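Fold Annotation — chain and its backbone

Encoding — discrete vocabulary of local shapes
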Amino acid sequence: MESPQNNTGIKSLDKNYWLLWSAFSVSTLGTYLSLIVMNLFIYQTTKSPMLVGLFLLFRLVPAFFMGNVAGVLADTFDRRKLIITADLVRAVLIFLVIFLRESLYPLYIIITLIAICDRLYQSAMGGSIPNIVGKEKLVTANA
């Protein structure tokens, strides 16, 4: 008799799940490292904790309000394309920061757009997991 753990263990997760998880981990690490650098840049340039706090607010508020919209978009469009597009747009936006030495205020627009792309990316990725692993392995994949 086969143990039920063999069917639901972490080793039974599909290769596509591990590719998605790896891509998500690298992408998220890059995004959050860039946010740390941007926060430090704003503080170093302005010496104003208030402007750093405002920057964080511009990061969190769009993510909060985009949750439902991103979920609808992830259910409406091809999730794979949304994941790739959102990640590429985030990468381009982060790259644009290199050219913003004169003014900090475009950073607030960029961080807002990054937050929107991040929410879209996370919604599409989260919605893809059941399709990749199936219902029987969903608890293990989400764990």
Q: What stands out?
A: Helices lie at 4-8, 15-46, 49-76, 79-96, 105-133, 138-142. Residues 1-6 have pLDDT under 50 and may be disordered. The chain has six helices and no strands. Residues 15-46 form the longest helix (32 residues).
